[in-house]
Amino acid sequence: MLAPPRDETRSGSRALFVVCAATLLVLMNYTAPVAVLPETARSLGAGLTTQTWLINAITLGLAATLLVAGSLGDDFGRRRVFRIGLALLAVSTAATAVAPNAGTFIAARVVQGVAGAAILAAGLGLLGHAFHTGAGRAHATARWASMLGAGIAIGPLASAALAAVGSWRWFYVILAALAAVLALAGGPLLEESRAARAARVDVPGVLTLGAGLALLLVAVTTGRTGWLRPATLVPLALAAVLLAAFVAVQARGRAPMLDLALFRRVDFRIATLGALFTGLAALGPSTVLPTLVQRLIGVSALGAAGLAFVWAGASFVVSNQMRRLGTRVAPARQLALGFALTAVGYVTMLGYADARSWLRTIPGLLLSGAGSGLLNAALARMAVASVPADRVAMGSGANNTARYVGAALGVAASITAASSMLPDGQSAGFSAHGADAVLLLGAALAILGIVVALGSFTARSPRRS
Known about the structure:
Blueprint: H1 6-35, H2 37-44, H3 48-76, H4 78-97, H5 102-130, H6 134-165, H7 169-186, H8 203-222, H9 230-252, H10 266-297, H11 301-325, H12 331-348, H13 352-355, H14 362-385, H15 392-418, H16 432-454
Helix pairs in contact: 1-3, 1-5, 1-6, 1-7, 3-4, 3-5, 3-8, 3-15, 4-5, 4-7, 5-15, 6-7, 6-11, 6-14, 8-9, 8-15, 10-11, 10-12, 10-14, 10-15, 10-16, 11-14, 12-14, 12-16, 14-15, 15-16
């Protein structure tokens, strides 16, 4: 009943296929190291602190450039930015495949994050242009959101399977080839779109935001070794200064990258805060969970990837089904329900490490995965609907920036929680009590997410769905 109109199906089906395929590759790549982190670290000679960067480096590239990529896509062409992102993904992924040491791998992962930012921001912007009715956008954004879950599900499983039969490097060889093929064959299937205004680069905005977010993530990542150390405090202070400068530049600029007036709109505020808490509560703890299961219970890399598949598979199924419900469910209500399922799922898993039972995680993974699916579908829809039609890529960039900044903060907080409750005599590593602390932290953040979502019910409703 809520399939997109026929004219939108004809004009948007090719865009939907290409954008969804590229999004799948980005998310597969994003989560690939999670299940094979021990093997990757040994091969690259990475210590415990450096291992955090093996996971978080791509988040740095994503978060620092998503808003920039969205703004450039609106002004200079969304298809152009999208194709550049695919080409950059192919090259940087090939570099990770042949990386001789941890430094090279981390640098390549940062570039992969930049490429992913261009694909995600411009891709969702292309869908916002191709599907302009409420039903069409609900259909397209639900499909796009389901690719987030699918990529998270397939990435760790594929990398673990290839590592088991050969090497962790094979995953990146194959993904680089797929990205190159999609860049060459998929680009001509897309129609160019851009904002009807003079194209101009907000150079001060690009520099202050990119540098500020990069320094923030550096501080968050190094914080697990001590929050009062100069290596953490100095980048944190510089990040605060640069992000304050970014806000000042946007408030006074003639063509700002981010229109701060959008924050006066309830739907935009809820979408942005909802994305931040999705990263904090859903992505952060779930990214750390496979490593904890491996180290505390002794599950193999393939088994840990299988658990990640359960969580992300539930996310994929639920996101995909939201295309059938379409505009019948308010996005803010979806957010509240998604956060509630996430919290309940985490509480259900409490005690799994102490009992040394991976089976105890299955019900919680299904519940929290379903919650993630609701969150992804609602946020994709709100990111497009909460901004003017000529700024859809910027809306996508702002929403995904909040999501991946939240994810980086969530990963760092989860690792800190997991290693903060060690038994007497143990100076490093993780404990069963730490595993429960991660789940309780995630549940608390999800409850705060419910509060954020429900805040929209006391204000005016979103004007568009």
